[in-house]
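Worked example 3 (structure in, sequence out).
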């Protein structure tokens, strides 16, 4: 794959999908299977031969490893509308930094034809806290995955969550970096406030160095609990579009959640300095997402529109993968 093709292989759109979205009438992935009936979260959709593959976090009563508290599953669609769950577990929890459960997968193609999955590993530390790090796995076919040794992004006093990795043009980046990884950064132990989105760069996709500064700060009332889960798109027309989740406390929610989640957006000319857009892209309040809309992922459709997949939580605490479609087509 040429460098130009790598830049467009994932997290890229020719035009800006924008900020206007209409929720779709049915859920994309329901929490109704033996592997995902307990939790269905964190979608990541990539184009593959013949259609689309969605990777997502699941937990269910028939999990093959009884000690696991969450893993990565997949589903396939020819049209990004009708999804068929694929059998088996793509990647289970385990190993350094991901002892108890994993979620927030992000799959990118590599120059050698393989795929790499960055994902959030979680380890329960025994004090009521959970430590999160970014780890990775590789696959030749997108179905069978092997954990890569080491940690991609970790810190003693910080948890890193919900990664998104973009290919970069090394000729245009200082130091020849080939990858930029965006991630949420939470204080560890977890405390209210000072949660943000940061970025790190790498020449090989394995060893990352944090970049100075904050990409998205936690500075608005609807982000009072957290900013979280960036979805970043390089735009062919110039600049970058980010969609991300903002969470705030919601003590009135009766069951299953103490927070409300919504999806917001921001724009950047260089991928580093971001300006938040006013308003909300996806608000909570529908039948699937009365409590939360979070963890966005955006793809383009054949008719020129875009579809955003996101995790949705209702007032009973049930999670599903929902979707919304852009308000207008960009097709000529």
């Amino acid at each position: 794959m040429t460098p130009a093709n790598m830049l467009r292989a994932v997290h890229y759109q020719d035009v800006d999908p924008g900020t206007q979205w209409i929720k779709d009438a049915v859920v994309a992935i329901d929490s109704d299977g033996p592997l995902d009936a307990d939790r269905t979260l964190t979608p990541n959709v990539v184009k593959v031969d013949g259609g689309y593959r969605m990777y997502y976090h699941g937990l269910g009563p028939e999990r093959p490893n009884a000690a696991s508290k969450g893993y990565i599953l997949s589903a396939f669609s020819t049209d990004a509308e009708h999804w068929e769950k694929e059998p088996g577990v793509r990647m289970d929890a385990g190993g350094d930094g991901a002892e108890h459960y994993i979620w927030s997968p992000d799959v990118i193609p590599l120059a050698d034809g393989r795929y790499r999955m960055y994902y959030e590993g979680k380890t329960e530390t025994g004090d009521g806290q959970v430590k999160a790090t970014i780890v990775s796995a590789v696959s030749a076919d997108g179905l069978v995955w092997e954990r890569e040794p080491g940690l991609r992004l970790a810190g003693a006093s910080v948890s890193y969550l919900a990664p998104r990795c973009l290919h970069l043009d090394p000729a245009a980046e200082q130091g020849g970096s080939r990858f930029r990884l965006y991630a949420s950064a939470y204080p560890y132990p977890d405390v209210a406030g000072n949660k943000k989105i940061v970025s790190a760069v790498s020449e090989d996709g394995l060893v990352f160095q944090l970049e100075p500064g904050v990409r998205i700060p936690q500075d608005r009332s609807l982000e009072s609990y957290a900013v979280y889960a960036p979805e970043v798109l390089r735009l062919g027309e110039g600049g970058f579009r980010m969609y991300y989740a903002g969470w705030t406390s919601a003590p009135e929610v009766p069951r299953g959640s103490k927070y409300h989640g919504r999806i917001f957006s921001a724009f950047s000319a260089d991928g580093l300095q971001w300006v938040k857009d006013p308003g909300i892209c996806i608000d909570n309040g529908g039948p699937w997402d009365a409590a939360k809309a979070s963890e966005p992922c955006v793809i383009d459709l054949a008719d020129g529109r875009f579809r955003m997949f996101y995790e949705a939580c209702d007032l009973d605490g049930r999670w599903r993968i929902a979707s919304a479609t852009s308000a207008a087509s960009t097709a000529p």
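Notes: Residues 3-9 form the longest helix (7 residues). The helical segments are 3-9.
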